[in-house]
Amino acid sequence: MKPFDRHSFLSAIAVVALASCSQPERLAAPGKAASAGSPVSAVGKVTLHAGQPCASPIMFDFRITGARTTVQLGAPMSETRLLTDAANRNRRVRIWGNWRHGREPGCNYINITRVEPLSIAAMF
Fold first, then answer.
1. What is the pLDDT of residue 36?
2. pLDDT at residue 2 in the model
3. Alpha carbon separation from 106 to 53, 60, 68, 71 (Å, rounded)
4. For a 10 Å CB count at each end of the chain, is N or C smaller?
């Protein structure tokens, strides 16, 4: 091997080794550190909430893009129509709202103030 090729090869190995040591950025679990009234803006997919909600406004579950957990959503009637349509069509939405706490311990949800359905072209 020529000295220049050997140097390039060793540099590439060093870069790969250093990159493998770095840890990917992790998203904080939704709701764990959120205080009531904190603003939220996120993109993800919405589904209809199955089961008994911990607070009466909760009608939807929301999976933020890139997160592993879901967040419960409560919404007024105008946003409920948009969220129901997005859930039925398996579409992504952008939501804006504020964190709220239900009466039961550990009952955190987002109270929606605005919803924007994302077009199919915006997904790619």
1. 81
2. 55
3. 12, 17, 18, 12
4. C
Contact predicate 112/97, CB 8 Å:
yes
Reference 41, options 71, 68, 69; nearest CA is 71
Tell the residue number behind the tokens 């706490």, with chain if given: 101
- The sign of the dihedral angle between the CA atoms of 37, 44, 87, 55 is negative
Residue type, 89: R
The residue whose two tokens read 């939405």 is: 93
- Residue type at position 121: A
Q: Which amino acid, 13?
A: I
Alpha helix ranges (H) inside 1-124: 3-21, 77-89, 120-123
Taking the model in full, what pTM does it have?
Answer: 0.65
Q: What b/e string do you get for 77-109 counting C-beta neighbours within 10 Å, with b at 16 or more?
A: eebbebbeebbeeebbbebebebbbbeeeeebb
Distance CA 111, CA 102 (A): 11
Residue, of 4 and 45, whose pLDDT is higher: 45
DSSP state of 45: E
